[in-house]
Amino acid sequence: MTRPEADGGSDPFDHDLRDLFDDEQRADAVRNRRREHGLRRQAEEAGLLAGVLLDLGEREQLVVVATSAGRNLRGVVRTVGGDFIGLRSPAGDGTLVPLAAIAAVRTEPGAERTVGDRVVRMEGSLVAVLTDLAAGRPFVAIHTADGRRIAGELRSTGHDVLTLDLPDGGGSIYVAISAICDLALP
């Protein structure tokens, strides 16, 4: 080991150790960034729409749900079922949307991002909820995949069909549950 030079010079060994330490710190930082990036990417790749919706609902974030029929529904996700979600609009109206009819979900500007990377095992199906609702015979408005709006009193729900009584004695209409893009309870 050499002594520091009298004119204030540094020890070459200390300089080499400092350089080695700095190199290791930079290498550690790069490894940590790569690991964090890999974990983030892995979480995003494991994301599920139902998981995203559950996360957003737990945060009570206002979202816009775009349906495959081209409708944009604004509200807070209040329920995530096995095959549907329940939205509550800012005005307080409830809407049921089948997961299969959701084209996109947009959050408000500045909202925290989510990846929905957790396993979601939700109970309850849209058919079961509609069956329960039919007992109270509520007035509902349905938007179908082909863009139709059908409104009436929900009378009954079968395995794959529901029955509405149309207003003013207009008869009954039978709607395939698979055709429903959203069902509003005004």
Structure, briefly:
With 186 residues, the protein is of the alpha+beta class.
Overview of this protein structure:
The protein is of the alpha+beta class and 186 residues long. The protein has a domain at 126-185: SH3 type barrels, CATH 2.30.30.100. It has helices spanning 12-45, 49-58, 126-134; strands at residues 62-67, 72-80, 84-88, 94-98, 102-107, 139-144, 149-157, 161-165, 172-176, 180-185. It has a ten-stranded antiparallel sheet. β2 and β3 (84-88) form a beta hairpin. The longest helix has 34 residues, at 12-45. The model has no long low-confidence stretch (mean pLDDT 86).
Topology:
Layout: H1 12-45, H2 49-58, E1 62-67, E2 72-80, E3 84-88, E4 94-98, E5 102-107, H3 126-134, E6 139-144, E7 149-157, E8 161-165, E9 172-176, E10 180-185
Structural class: alpha+beta
The geometry reads as rod-shaped
CATH architecture of the domain at 126-185: Roll
Radius of gyration: 28 Å
Low-confidence stretches: none
Individual helix count: 3
Q: Roughly what is the average pLDDT, rounded to an integer?
A: 86
Structure summary, number of beta strands = 10
The fold-level CATH name of the domain at 126-185 is SH3 type barrels
Helix proportion range: 25-40%
The helix/strand order is: HHEEEEEHEEEEE
Distance between the termini: 85 Å
CATH class of the domain at 126-185: Mainly Beta
Strand order of the largest sheet: 5-1-2-3-4-10-6-7-8-9
